[in-house]
Amino acid sequence: MATPIRHIHRMGGGSREQKDIFKDIYMELHRRLGDTDAVIALAQERLLQNPNHLQSLAALAWAYGRTDQAALERQACAQLVRKAEAVGVHPDAPTLVGARQTLHAGC
Q: Which among 3, 31, 52, 53 is least buried, having the fewest CB atoms inside 10 angstroms?
């Protein structure tokens, strides 16, 4: 199914936003299944399309944390916090709180 997801924008029907939402759900499905390799690949692909995609930064932080890649986890958390603050995400959002905790634990 990975190839059809990668080429979803070539398919007819549906808006670009609907297809993006499908990709986000597909990434979340892999996260819930614990498939860190798929999550990393999907998140990186989404970030190439949109460097400010907060869901992908959160997914990368999760995947790097699960694979004991602490430096990459902190980097993803730092980007997530910086970009979330820039767009006005509520400071008590659970993902943002978790990212800050990861950054403070690494100090």
A: 3
- The separation between the first and the last C-alpha atoms of the chain, rounded to the nearest angstrom, is 40
Q: At what angle do helices 16-33 and 36-49 cross, to 10 degrees?
A: 150
Decide: helix, strand or coil at residue 15. Answer: coil
pTM value is 0.83
- Listed in sequence order, the residues at least 6 apart from 80 whose beta carbon sits closer than 8 Å to its beta carbon are 54, 57, 58, 61, 95, 96, 99
Tell me which residue range forms the domain holding 50.
2-105
Total tally of structural domains belonging to the chain: 1
Q: Which two tokens stand for residue 4?
A: 């059809």
Are 83 and 54 contacting, i.e. CB atoms less than 8 angstroms apart? yes
For 55-91, write each residue's pLDDT tens digit.
Answer: 999 999 999 999 999 999 999 999 999 999 999 999 9
Name residue 70's amino acid. Answer: A
